[in-house]
Design brief:
The protein is built from 1 helix and 11 strands; from the N terminus they run H-E-E-E-E-E-E-E-E-E-E-E. By secondary structure, it is an alpha+beta fold.
């Protein structure tokens, strides 16, 4: 079982690196190497999609869970901190440490689209969402506080 999980994870990350490099080639020119540095991920409600946040690239990637194929990659801004799926939905919350924001993203038409963004204070990191998806808690490191969003 452990070998299958490891193989699947390597497949997903390999697919993500290949797609991100293709985007870099398109936007920056061939030969410019980009390592997206996926730093956190969330499994969406139907267990068929994974969304990663990519530290160095400042992007979020949506992958098929079964084979790691990257379906979409969108710019989310510098220094994403954390991602959390909202239970029972096709939506995620993503924090941006430098911008001091938390953003709501949803899957729509096979793509990730930003729905809303709120200021939380500088350096929001972790996110916890209530089981009913109606409340989110965000740690705001610079202020030594927890923001509660409803």
């Amino acid at each position: 079982m452990k070998n299958n999980v490891f193989y699947w994870l390597v497949l997903c990350l390999s697919s993500l690196l290949t797609t991100t490099q293709a985007l870099a080639d398109e936007r920056l020119g061939p030969g410019v190497s980009i390592d997206p540095a996926p730093s956190d991920l969330a499994l969406l409600a139907n267990d068929s999609l994974i969304v990663t946040i990519n530290q160095r690239a400042g992007t979020a990637s949506m992958l098929q869970a079964r084979d790691g194929q990257v379906l979409d990659e969108v710019a989310i801004g510098a220094t994403p901190g954390a991602i959390q799926a909202i239970p029972g939905t096709q939506s995620v919350l993503i924090t941006s440490r430098e911008a001091g924001t938390i953003a709501l993203w949803r899957v729509s038409g096979g793509r990730l689209e930003q729905v809303a963004s709120l200021q939380t204070g500088f350096e929001p990191y972790g996110i916890a969402v209530s089981p009913d998806g109606q409340r989110a808690y965000v740690s705001v490191a610079a202020a030594s506080q927890v923001a509660i969003l409803e």
